């Protein structure tokens, strides 16, 4: 069950080659932003920003875990080019 070349292409253009820590940072920011929003009274636009950070972080973690499982992207083995 391989990944088609076309499917892989848009995926890499959209997300690049993230590592797991690249997704954890936006999730932490979203959690902090939710705490600040709740403590300040709850402006609706602040909730929108917190949800956007959370969605971005969740997508990045999902892509990184998928890459790690399939040994692709940032988790691919290094390419060694033999020299004469």
Describe the structure.
It is a single chain. The protein has a domain of 57 residues. It contains three helices and no strands. α2 packs antiparallel against α3. The mean pLDDT is 86. The longest helix has 27 residues. It is 70% helix and 0% strand. The chain is elongated and about 65 Å long. With 84 residues, it is mainly alpha-helical.
Concise account of the structure shown:
The chain has three helices and no strands.
Give structural attributes.
3 helices; mainly alpha; single chain; 70% helix; 84 residues; elongated
Helix percentage range: over 70%
Low-confidence stretches: none
Mean pLDDT metric: 86
Q: Tell me about the biggest sheet?
A: none
By DSSP (H or I, 4+ residues per run), the number of helices equals 3
Strand content: under 5%
Shape: elongated
Structural class estimated from helices and strands: mainly alpha
Radius of gyration: 17 Å
Q: Could you state the order of secondary-structure elements as H and E?
A: HHH
**Terminal residue distance:** 37 Å
Total number of β-strand segments? 0
Transmembrane segments: 20-39, 45-65
Protein name: Peptidoglycan/LPS O-acetylase OafA/YrhL
Keywords: Membrane, Transmembrane, Transmembrane helix
Secondary-structure map:
Layout: H1 5-15, H2 20-40, H3 44-70
């Amino acid at each position: 069950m391989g990944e088609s070349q076309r499917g892989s292409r848009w995926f890499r253009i959209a997300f690049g080659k993230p590592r797991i820590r690249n997704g954890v940072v936006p999730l932490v920011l979203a959690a902090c932003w939710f705490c600040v929003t709740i403590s300040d009274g709850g402006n609706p636009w602040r909730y929108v920003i917190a949800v956007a950070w959370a969605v971005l972080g969740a997508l990045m973690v999902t892509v990184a875990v998928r890459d790690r499982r399939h040994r692709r992207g940032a988790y691919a083995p290094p390419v060694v080019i033999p020299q004469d």
